[in-house]
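Exercise 7b. Backbone tokens:
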């Protein structure tokens, strides 16, 4: 639970990694987590943010724990991607990458997300993606900056 400045919400910090899990890696870790925490995930005062290491473009159709199914399950819970809502983008066709693989500008992907419950989505004022030139000296990821009213 995060409290302060007149706000209170539950934050789930995501870093989908674990390439050694025999049940699956990356987005499948998120799939397992949202099912493990299912009864705690609410359509109010909830944020899931971080490096999901996934995108619809990499979906494996025969795997239940793919990116599209994670998005669908969260949406069923009333939790939505702030970036996609704000910029009116379609999953897998994002215009603003959050990762430049190996810091190469010609290898852009959108794999970082901030999913928010419906009540918080109504308060979105901006969703910005960091600039390649400014941020890649620090990381191959650029920040996703979400501001609420």
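Sequence design result:
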């Amino acid at each position: 639970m995060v409290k302060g400045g007149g706000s209170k919400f539950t934050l789930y910090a995501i870093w989908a990694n674990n390439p050694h899990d025999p049940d699956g890696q990356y987005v499948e870790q998120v799939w397992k987590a949202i099912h493990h925490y299912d009864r705690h995930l609410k359509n109010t005062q909830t944020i899931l943010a971080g490096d999901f290491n996934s995108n619809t473009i990499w979906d494996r159709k025969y795997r239940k724990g793919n990116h599209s199914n994670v998005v669908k399950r969260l949406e069923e819970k009333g939790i939505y991607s702030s970036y996609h809502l704000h910029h009116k983008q379609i999953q897998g066709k994002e215009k603003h990458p959050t990762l430049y693989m190996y810091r190469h500008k010609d290898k852009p992907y959108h794999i970082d997300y901030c999913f928010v419950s419906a009540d918080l989505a109504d308060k979105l004022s901006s969703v910005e993606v960091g600039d390649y030139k400014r941020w890649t000296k620090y990381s191959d990821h650029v920040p996703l900056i979400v501001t609420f009213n």
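Instructor comment: Residues 2-148 form a domain with the Deoxyribonuclease I; Chain A fold (CATH 3.60.10.10). The beta strands are 2-4, 7-15, 46-51, 79-81, 99-100, 108-109, 112-117, 124-129, 144-148.
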